[in-house]
């Protein structure tokens, strides 16, 4: 890790990760950085939602997806896994007409497929959270501001083996960053210490293999 990293200084004078500069003046974007990004999550619905949104982000900016997040939630049954797994051709047609989301057939079909695969995974592992956190990298293996890592490649490979789609290693790296599997806030970022404290207090769920 470098002792110093480029930072963004918004109007409140508190240094943030440089990527916040992409939405200077956007309070919602800063709030996402300050309150969500890099903080550990163990809720299956939230984990699945973010995995879906990371897939939709492919080729787009996160700001675009974040601004559409409420529309995505409305369109995809609040990312409730069991309900999404029952989506059919009529739902796909409805979603392709929804201007509030990203109307990409491949991505829409992928997240429906992933909901079905997620039900299978939960039946085997006990929860999505337990499965995801089993890929948490060791402290010495945590890169800083990379695009992929050994852990993200392992997660991507295993999800693909299970039939998941739009889960490449770069996408999974961004996912692991955002869900707090490691703290990738820049050194000097005002949020980094709070994310560290949250992780210290967090107890990762364990895989509970079902017979």
From TrEMBL:
Q: Which InterPro entries match?
A: Adenine_glyco (IPR005019), DNA-3mA_glycosylase (IPR052891), DNA_glycosylase (IPR011257)
The membrane-spanning stretches of this chain are: none
Recorded hits in PANTHER family, A to Z, give: DNA-3-METHYLADENINE GLYCOSYLASE 1, DNA-3-METHYLADENINE GLYCOSYLASE I
Q: What is this protein called?
A: DNA-3-methyladenine glycosylase I
Organism, by scientific name, is Roseateles albus
Lineage of source species: Bacteria, Pseudomonadati, Pseudomonadota, Betaproteobacteria, Burkholderiales
